[in-house]
Amino acid sequence: MEFSREQKLGVLLAMGAFFLWGIFPVYLKAVAILPPLELVAHRIVWSWLFVLAMILVLKQLPKLKAHARNPRMMLALTASTLLLAFNWYLFVYAVNTNRVLEASLAYYINPLLNMALGGIFLSERLRPLQWLAVTLAVTGVAVEIAVFGSVPWLALGMAASFALYGLIRKLAPIDSLNGMMIETSMMLIPAGLYIALWGEATFNLLTEEHWALLALFGPISAVPLMMFASAARKIQYTTLGFLQYIGPTLMFLLAVWVYHEPFGQAKMVTFGFIWAGVACFSAYALLRRR
Question: What is the pLDDT at residue 114?
Answer without folding.
Answer: 79
